[in-house]
Amino acid sequence: MLYGSLRERSYSKLLTxxxxxxxxxxxxxxxxxxxxxxxQPDAAPDTHAKVEELRDLAAWSxxxxxxxxxxxxxxxxxxxxxxxxxxxxxxxxxxxxxKTLAVMEVCGGSQSFNAVNQMRILGRWMRMLTxxxxxxxxxxxxxxxxxxxxxxxxxxxxxxxxxxxxxxxxLLTRDVSPYLVDRYSERKESAEQLSKRxxxxxx
Length: 203
Description:
Elements: E1 2-3, H1 11-25, H2 49-60, E2 63-69, H3 77-85, E3 100-106, H4 114-125, E4 129-130, E5 135-137, H5 154-173, H6 177-180, H7 184-198
Parallel strand pairs: 1-2, 2-3, 3-4, 3-5
């Protein structure tokens, strides 16, 4: 689970932790990445401890949750930096391909969907299976208790819906995701490379 703010009272973090508790109650094993200390992409080697931690978690996970505040009508650079550190491929392995993804955002004012829409585009680019449902919490500063727990509301109900749907899609696609993301163009390319390697005119 990734969140996109380093504020002391970060509502994207609080929403992420609320969602993490729901996922655990539904039987999932959950890990939340703390972006504090993660360097900007290309400002440090990929052997940096925080980068390795992030990449290990991305490889370990079956599904992911991304949660960002909306800032200047967009997702934050803090969340984008985390995504940018996750490589599209490591050797023959694509760390995010076929994994499920749920997207959420928190808003300081009225409800908006700019951040979740951007995260959907990134999920597609990372070749993930982004679930249909999503969460956008308006005026997030009104939706959490002092202890950080989310207040009962329609927004909370939607978060439950989204996490439940993420679990369902993850279980449904767990054993078939390699088939779902298998591409003809990549099979064809591999065949052509094999043909050249073994000197066959056709394959």
